[in-house]
């Protein structure tokens, strides 16, 4: 019997492709999406995606969303306490693995491994070490539709906010920007791909700058 796992869900392309990879391999039984939400905004933390869009993703994936609510601003110790509480609940529910979409940042992987040590849960990194240009192209070629919903304007020009990830866009990225945005250059929201039962119908919203980052809003099309 396959072990139960949840996916650390940010709404973006990397976690979506990690989910798709695990499902394709049938190596784990996926039972939920672990998603950090900033309660004051009703949005997914870091990416700024509306909760209703994350809910729609979960329905299209056929998996329950397990939100972890944090305040704004959120000191790291508050975040870690909230996450530790949810990890404890997952363990009670029989979950033994957490799937991450991390690609190559050693410090990020080490942090996750250290925080989960002793919890009875093991982090899994199905995309680790994949060449990011080839990985981004594979996602695009396989039908993943991902919108850049957040970016760091110190690393990527604001004009990229709200654009869909395509081969053309990859060719336009500054050479120092990772094709998957792994160093925090940009974050995406996936609205279509082989992991979904059906594409999400979304409409673009305003692009705003807040707290040093640029966000492009998405709403569900009515």
Q: If you had to describe this structure to a student in words, what would you say it looks like?
A:
31% of the residues lie in helices and 28% in strands. It has 222 residues and is α/β, with parallel strands linked by helices. It has one domain: HUPs (Rossmann fold, 3-Layer(aba) Sandwich). Strands 1, 2, 3, 4, 5 and 6 form a six-stranded mixed sheet that branches. Strands 8-7-10-9 form a four-stranded antiparallel sheet, covered by helices on one side. The longest helix is centred in the middle third of the chain and has 17 residues, at 76-92. The mean pLDDT is 97.
Can you tell me the number of structural domains? 1
The tally of strands reads 10
SSE series: EHEEHEHEHEHEHEEE
CATH first level? Alpha Beta
Low-pLDDT sequence parts: none
**Which class of secondary structure composition applies to the elements?**
alpha/beta
pLDDT averaged residue by residue: 97
